[in-house]
């Protein structure tokens, strides 16, 4: 153990490791449950960037569990610590860009409710699906090069909860990637809010046909979660950059971002309906009004009830 690790008593360290692992396991379980519900239930339909975002956050959550069983004084083998360092640095950009691309897809879908149709094409959707993984692979390549030059840079964090690199080069790279994702996220969320306000009537017509898709609710969920994503990425970068007790204590809460994701998107009505399987669907006393004709003129992906962006 080096000097930074020796400053923690065994009881403090055990408590921090226990909290960190418990939160990481909870994040994997919750995000996995929401993703599995959407994948295997016919009642839940989402666009592919939504699924891609959840997969990216599932990878983020699981990355912190790779060191379970090697968080004691003895430590993991070098190759194992290197493997987790790859995911610890690669997962935040993956999750950040996964969220950013989801917001871009949401913007394209919502903007189609306005004056100029901007239906997301298949090629555009594929680009949005690949961008997060390109960022992830780029980070993996960069870390591999850095470790090849200096293998001794691979170390465990001061709290022993995960492995990282004892260098500022990769942290600087992650800061740049996080800033790019943030620049994409924040303006688009603001513009989506403006579009929803201008297209309130059209949004209401769409919600009449698709009651499970509430755009305003979706925007609020996305905005709250985006704020937490930016805080989480900043906390992750700070925890990797600074090695002191205060940061170590805060770093145990790194898995909370995917937990908030699961709560934000897992509490939507159609997903909750799947879990409330013991409740029967309410029967309507009057037949529903056919509003399809009102929205058929809108050439938008949102008019398809089989694929909701939210």
UniProtKB/TrEMBL annotation:
The keyword Transmembrane helix applies. Residues 286-310 are annotated as: Disordered. The chain crosses the membrane at residues 14-38, 50-71, 77-104, 125-147, 175-196, 216-235, 247-265. Keywords: Membrane, Transmembrane, Transmembrane helix. This is G-protein coupled receptors family 1 profile domain-containing protein. It comes from Crucibulum laeve.
